[in-house]
Structure formats: C-alpha cells, structure tokens
Write a structure and sequence with these properties.
Elements (H helix, E strand, L loop, with lengths): L1 E9 L8 E9 L2 E6 L13 E4 L4 E4 L1 E6 L7 H4 L2 H16 L3 E6 L5 H8 L7 E4 L3 E3 L19 H4 L3 E3 L3 H13 L5 E4 L18 H13 L4 E5 L2 H10 L3 E4 L5 H10 L2 E3 L27 H7 L3 H9 L14 H7 L3 H9 L1 H7 L2 H7 L24 E4 L16 E6 L2 E5 L12
Parallel strand pairs: 1-4, 1-5, 6-7, 7-8, 9-10, 11-12, 12-13, 13-14
Antiparallel strand pairs: 1-2, 2-3, 5-15, 15-16, 16-17
Helix pairs in contact: 2-3, 5-6, 6-7, 7-8, 12-13
The structure holds zinc ion.
Length: about 425
C-alpha cells in the first residue's frame, strides 16, 4: 500500500517555519520519502491512495506524555475490571480521534488495552506504558479510601494499577515486575497529591535510597523513572536519585529550576487541574480530600502557576505536553485538547506544539531498548517516521489554540491508516483506507 500526500505545507515537529508544497510518500506505515521539488513529476499511478493537503497544515500526530488510559480515579473501587477494560478501550479511541497518535501512560492497568491497540483489536494511540504506578504505603498512590481498609482490601492495589513498595528491596521487585509487563518507563509517586486522602501535598515520599533503587533497576533495562511530584524539596530529592521526568512540578522555585536545567530533567506541567476539578466520572463522585491547612498555600498557587511558568521559560526547561486525563470518558473528551490553550498562554504556540511533537519524541527516546515502537520515529515528519500525521485548518505553530477545536483537525492518520477524514470528497482520489 503506497500513499501520497500532495501539496503538503508541513510542520516537521521542530522548526517554526513550515516546509512548503512537499510530497510525502508513505509505504508500509512509514514515511519513506519527502519530495521537496519536482512533486508534479511524480507519477500518481504508483499510489493506491492520494490525499491533497492544499489549504491545510500537516503536522505530526500529537503526543500526550501523561495520560491514564485505565485509571478512572476511584473507579477501581466501584467497577469490576471488565468495565474498566471497556472504558480504557473507549478512552483510547477518544484520544486517537482527537489527534493523539501516541500517549505515555502514567500508570494503571494498561497491558491489555495496549496489546489490543497494537494488534488492531481496538483503535487507539501508540502507548508507552508505565503499567502499575509505584507508591509507598500512605503515599499518593495508596488508593485506600478509608482508614478502616487494609492494603489487601484495596481493588486498586489488588488489580496491579498501584503497586505498594517500601524499602529498596520491595522497590526493585516492583520495578522489575513492571518491566516484565513491558513498561517503557517506570512511574513513581514521589510526593503528596491533591486527590489522595492521607498524604498532604507537602509530604515527601520515598527515601533517596528507595528512589535510587528504582532508577537503578530501570537503568539496568535501559530506561528511566518519571515521578509525580509537586514541591521543591521532593524535586530536589528525586533529582539526586536520577529521576528524569517530573510530572506537574507545579511549585518549583528558582533553586529547583537550576537543578532541573543542569540535569536536563523533563517537565510535564499537566495544567489540566489548574483551578478546576475534573468533571464527570463515576457515580457517586469520590469524596473530596479532607482540608489540611498545611496545604492551603499550595492549593492557592496551583490555581495559577505563574512562578513555574516564568521559571520554565526563563531557564528554557525541556517540557512535554501532558494532560493527566483519565478519571472519566467525559473528562477525556472535554479536556484533552483544551490544554493547548494553557500551553499557548504559558509557553507560546511554537514551544507548545514542539512539546506535543518533536520535543516529546526526545523524551520518549529515553526508553531506549524498552521502546515498544522502535521501527519508526515519532512526533517528527521526516523519512523514517511513522506515518502518524494530521491535516489541520490553520497553522498551530503560529496559533496553538487552533487545536482546541477538534473540528479543525480534518484528517487523522496513524501508521498510514486514516481514522478520521472530513476532507471535501475524502481528499483527491477519495480513498479511505
Ligand atoms: Zn497522573
């Protein structure tokens, strides 16, 4: 199957300036060649499908570097695993139809849904899975909803969505178990959270020794650790341990920003929850976290993370686009593209778009031999890339907010297969594969 995209003004995943009027040749799910001159001489008879991109900007398929395909908040306490699996498959389809052709899953029961996507059983993005997220007892991932519950009573823990580890030996085992399941990176809960009940936001979680054990076990398999983390003290400890990706990093201060810069740590700001609680979700909704006056300062700062934004921009810290969607299908449907508005406002349109394409690929490369998709490049449009691309009305490198409106995405292709096509007449040749 050979496909040609004609008249492509395209964003290559890095450079602000578009490449113009190119021909993109796709074969066997990969971009084989990009023709910059003499496109009109190419014989169209050699192609099974031809799409005309005139009037659109072609961009790489989007990467969301922080999702939870199967983590529906407290759902595991309220749903049987078969319902969670069906919802995870639906979540994957929603994400793909929003233009996300690759996601990094930040923890949950992911193995089965990833396998079903890769085998073509259900449509969905490529998944870089963490599998179960690892938490200490009484940490952010300890999903017990009541102090009356013992660990073995928690469905979240029993299902493997969360793995509790205390001490270096348990950490090594927990990490290796996720690697056994094919984890492309390891997810730790390295500090308090907004939604978990018994760990104030400012708490430090995992000792240096425990985190180093996780980093070492991951490194032995060629990969890295990402950590849920908010406060400067937690970030400094995680940086010392060798954690490579900070999720949220919302309350960073200047000293922490310098450490992040010096060590080239990735930051995934996840603005999803800025000033706004997730809507939709299981019924009845989870009980809110009991108020803790020690956290008031952080809760106020989280509503408008001015300081983190200023530091990320001033120190030019490497960022990736991540939404932390999960919780409910309604939330994914409403929220995943909406964060492009926040990225535009905080980091600018070009940086924001790079963070969801070529920048994200730089982060995904850290998985090395644990990369589930080594056959092609991701997030960039060049020879050797997976044929994951979008036709967009307007140029999101100039105005990222264009992507908030899903109708501006006229065509979605993953692996050379078209999943959405609203081009007039289906594009030249009108072929839908
Ligand atoms: Zn998360």
């Amino acid at each position: 199957m050979r496909t040609l995209i004609r008249h492509a003004d395209f964003f290559d995943g890095k450079n602000k300036r578009l490449r113009e009027q190119a021909g993109i040749v796709i074969e066997d799910g990969l971009i084989r060649e990009i023709i910059y001159s003499g496109v009109s001489d190419v014989s169209l008879e050699n192609f099974d499908n031809i799409y005309d991109a005139q009037g659109y900007t072609v961009i790489p398929g989007l990467v969301d570097a922080h999702v939870h395909l199967s983590w529906h908040s407290t759902d595991l306490d309220r749903m049987r695993l078969d319902e969670v699996a069906v919802r995870a498959a639906k979540a994957a389809e929603i994400m793909l139809l929003k233009g996300f052709t690759t996601v990094r899953d930040a923890g949950g029961v992911t193995y089965g849904v990833k396998k079903c996507i890769d085998n073509g059983v259900v449509p969905g993005p490529r998944v870089f899975p963490s599998n179960g997220y690892i938490s200490q007892t009484c940490g952010h991932g300890d999903g017990r909803g009541s102090r009356a519950q013992s660990v073995d009573m928690s469905p979240r823990i029993r299902s493997g969505a969360c793995v509790i580890a205390d001490g270096a030996a348990e950490m090594l085992k927990a990490v290796r178990e996720q690697l056994f399941l094919g984890a492309s990176q390891i997810k730790l809960m390295a500090g308090g959270g907004f939604s978990s009940r018994y760990d104030p936001i400012r708490t430090l979680q995992f000792t240096l020794e425990e985190m180093r054990a996780a980093v070492d076990a991951a490194a032995d398999f060629g990969t890295y650790v990402m950590a849920h983390i908010y406060t400067p003290a937690a970030m400094r400890r995680a940086a010392r341990a060798g954690v490579r990706s900070f999720e949220h990093a919302t309350f960073m201060d200047e000293e922490t920003a310098r450490v992040i810069q010096a060590q080239g740590i990735w930051v995934c700001p996840c603005p999803q929850f800025d000033g706004e609680a997730p809507k939709g979700g299981p019924e009845p909704p989870p009980a809110p976290k009991p108020p803790n006056p020690f956290d008031d300062e952080y809760i106020a700062m989280s509503r408008d993370p001015v300081q983190a934004t200023e530091l990320i921009n001033r120190f030019n810290l490497p960022i990736v686009f991540g939404t932390d969607v999960g919780f409910s299908l309604e939330f994914i449907a409403a929220g995943q593209l909406r964060d492009f508005r926040a990225y535009k406002k905080r980091f600018g349109s070009h940086n924001g778009l790079v963070s969801a394409t070529g920048g994200a690929y730089e982060l995904l490369k850290l998985s090395t031999s644990q990369n589930p998709y080594p056959r092609g490049k991701i997030g960039v449009l060049e020879a050797g890339s997976f044929a994951d691309l979008l036709f967009v009305r307007g140029n999101p490198a100039e105005d990222l907010e264009i992507l908030v409106e899903r109708d501006n995405i006229a065509l979605i292709m993953k692996d050379g297969v078209v999943y959405k096509n609203t081009l007039p007449g289906g594009g030249e040749g009108g072929t839908l594969s």
